[in-house]
Amino acid sequence: MDKQFDVIIIGSGAGGGTLARHLAPSGKSILILERGDWLKREALNWSPAAVFQQNRYIAPDTWYDKSGQPFQPQVHYFVGGATKMYGAALYRLREKDFEEVRHYDGISPAWPIRYEDLEPYYAKAEDMYFVHGLRGADPTEPPASGPYPCPPVSSEPRIQQLFDDLAAAGYHPFPAPSAVMMDEQNMAYSRCIRCQTCDGFPCLVHAKSDAEVCAVRPALEFPNVTLLRHAHALKLETNANGTSVTSIEAEVGGERETFRGDIVVVSCGAANSAKLLLMSANDKHPKGLANGSDQVGRNYMFHNSQAVLALSREPNPTFFQKTLALNDFYFGMEGFDYPVGNIQMIGKTLGPMFRGEKPLLTALVPTRLLDDVAYHSVDFWLTTEDIPDPENRVTVDEAGKLTLSYTPNNQVPTRKLYDKLKSMLGQIGMRPDYLIPRDIYMQTEIPLAGCAHQAGTCRFGQDPKTSVLDVNCKAHELDNLYVVDTSFFVSIGAVNPSLTAIANAMRVGDHLLERMS
Ligand SMILES: Cc1cc2nc3c(=O)[nH]c(=O)nc-3n(C[C@H](O)[C@H](O)[C@H](O)COP(=O)(O)OP(=O)(O)OC[C@H]3O[C@@H](n4cnc5c(N)ncnc54)[C@H](O)[C@@H]3O)c2cc1C
Ligand code: SF4
Asked: Which residue, 100, 333, 347, 405, is most buried by CB atoms nearer than 10 A?
């Protein structure tokens, strides 16, 4: 294989996969290095036991917390990255999320771009990922240049009842933006079959708009795009004065290989991108590549998230539950003048998930009882912003051992959101005392391992002293190195991060097209 390319993209997830698709029509030679394989299409894709008890699609990595305790992070190394498993809730950040915001526990800093700069790319991102939704239904929604490309996914009766009850009580539920290829007008031909095993599962029929389906596969239809699987980038080498990346050292199917690209884009996910840069330290970059600011790896964020199930006497036979969300408390609530967060549904709880999350507690509980609890649950996902803290960081030792030091912050609004949900449920006649925390997305009780929403380890900004990347997501210190995964986030907001990573990859893509023209 020719090993010299115009652009090499490391990682094929939301950021890297989307960028490859965006650049593909340019005719430039593009190589994607992806450490994982295709996620195998198999019946087990939709097995709750395989996915939630046997952790079938979770990488066998070991990371360490700040006290040196090992844990298995919930990371997914496949073509398409974490989007293969994601819940496909694709939200735009709010306008204010791009500005400095005072939170209960500190300041969420301003981004170097405004919402208006990203808006055209949000629109393109929603098109590329076939997002379903309804403009104007969410009072906190930022202005948009057009409607969603697809109509909102309808709610099934139990969730529609919840929707109506919340609306009657004066709240503003709205149809959650959802990236599944569902055609409700013509289900006989719809790719999405509306199943119960979507959020946290791979989609067996490739109807979830993930980065493999919507970006990498379409990119590969262009003859100038090459994907190398099982290609694990280990180190970036630079020229003698440290101003450009000259080559990438990778392990490909067990063999060491070297690749050269005029432009090199890192998109390995926030923790692994920081790891790759830190592992690439050299004489000119002794603290790690692009790390003169000492910011690489710092400001790791992953949301203060809580999954809770509300048990009720009524059954909840819903299949696709992620159709309702509520942002009434995004910017605050009565008596509390700080941002609180987002409430949305998660995928339907299924009995076998409990065994994966709490193996000891459920060991003696009959399967039928767990199934019954699941059948009566209505399941919520609550998100509050965690504030970027330089001490919340990824570090590596010389052998590549990754330590994730993290001290939770902004917990008061997190608790307030939980209490608010409780009181709302009481108000609409559901039993608030039957609200039970869950560890979905984690399959473990170690919160740090639930790194689904990881972001922020290579923040972008104007000032090279306080940021790793410039406004185009190019490393301040190198003229051909870019980062386009969620690492660039300055703050994380309280909505799911993928659409922002996707939109930004397109924005950076336009910059690269101009640079290469
Ligand atoms: C269960 C689950 C549910 C989620 N639900 C949602 C949701 O509903 N909405 C939402 O917006 N977000 C959701 N997310 C989060 C979302 O998936 C991520 O925010 C998004 O995928 C991040 O994109 P990324 O490009 O930063 O990284 P990723 O998508 O993780 O891509 C990184 C890629 O880099 C590869 N890689 C890593 N290291 C190397 C290396 N050294 N060499 C080569 N390749 C490498 C990985 O294999 C991977 O393919 C969810 C995540 C999970 C796990
Ligand atoms: S709900 Fe649709 S998109 Fe999701 S896994 Fe099922 S078929 Fe795939």
From this structure: 347
Q: What share of the chain is helix, strand, coil (3-state, %, to 5)?
A: 30, 20, 50
Say if CB 34 and CB 232 are below 8 A apart. no
Q: Whose CA is nearest to atom 3 of ligand 2?
A: 208
Give the span between the Cα atoms of 427 and 124, in whole angstroms.
Answer: 40
Whose atoms come closest to the Cα of 93: which ligand?
1
Q: How confident is the model at residue 371 (pLDDT cuts 50, 70, 90)?
A: confident
Ligand 2 atom having least distance to the Cα of 191: 7
| Bridge-based pairing state of the strands 255-266 and 481-483 | parallel
- Rounded average pLDDT over 285-308: 96
CB of residue 11 inside a 6 A radius of ligand 1? yes
The CA-CA-CA angle for residues 164, 168, 170, to 5°, reads 120
Q: What is this structure's pTM?
A: 0.97
346 ligand 1 Cβ < 6 A: no
Which of 59, 55, 63 shows the shortest CA–CA distance to 82? 59
Instruction: Tell me if 77 CB under 6 Å of ligand 1.
Output: yes
